[in-house]
């Protein structure tokens, strides 16, 4: 039996943490934390962590002038992404948002093709089709999924699209900077925007939330945000944005499992079949011949 490659381990670890983060963040946002106050605190803590890591490891946050526009674009995409993320989870269930985020590879592929950064073979699209057929089965088996709040679904689509943009913008920066330096620059810039628009909620937030919420906030910061940022950046550098984001199609099924265990939701045979089909699609897309420009 073939051992998983290092990039596969990184992607699966990031996917597991992200899937769990949907459940954790949904719990936090339905137990007293206002959306923008939560994002302000979480991204503020993460920014401090990344700045500390970068200074200890590299003693510098310098970014070359030619990359400033790309950094600003990535920060803007991440800012919009986080606004969409917290409001999507506030107004819609975690399982529905997980399903919507499975559309990220399509956004990444289309944007990559538009900017000439990706050349995708037919096998990739076959894998994507299989994966999204699996997503459809998961959605079919999700109780009440199609009755979700329309605004929440729209926020979920914004989250998926902006994450694709963010991933594509970050990829060329990986050739010149470490993941910790990129995060130490981009996340604080995004945090400034989040803090500014989130000030009314942050200033009126009731901070008596209980130790469970604060413990989950710490996990949501250090695990799904700090650790996954490093894993995700390295995966993007190794295999490209569209192929890395294809693997995130596993998230709906993984998130459903976490929901069963932690939130008492149910999962049926249709959803299990969908998860298996998602995995088959990812395998089909991975087993491809090398792609050369112009192919």
How many strands appear in the DSSP assignment? 0
Class per helix and strand makeup: mainly alpha
Distance between the termini: 32 Å
Tell me the series of helices and strands, N- to C-terminal.
HHHHHHHHHHHH
Mean pLDDT: 79
Structural domain tally: 1
Roughly what fraction of the amino acids lie in strands?
under 5%
User: What is the tally of helical segments?
Assistant: 12
Q: State the helicity in percent bands.
A: over 70%
Describe this entry's structure for a reader.
It is a single chain. The chain is mainly α and 295 residues long. It has one domain. The protein has helices spanning 6-29, 35-58, 68-91, 94-101, 104-114, 122-141, 150-173, 179-204, 211-239, 241-246, 251-263, 269-286. The longest helix is centred in the last third of the chain and has 29 residues, at 211-239. Mean pLDDT is 79; it is low at 287-295.
Essential attributes:
12 helices; 295 residues; single chain; mainly alpha; disordered C terminus
Q: What is the secondary structure topology, with strand pairs?
A:
Blueprint lengths: L5 H24 L5 H24 L9 H24 L2 H8 L2 H11 L7 H20 L8 H24 L5 H26 L6 H29 L1 H6 L4 H13 L5 H18 L9
Helix pairs in contact: 1-4, 1-9, 1-11, 2-3, 2-8, 2-9, 3-7, 3-8, 4-7, 4-11, 5-7, 6-12
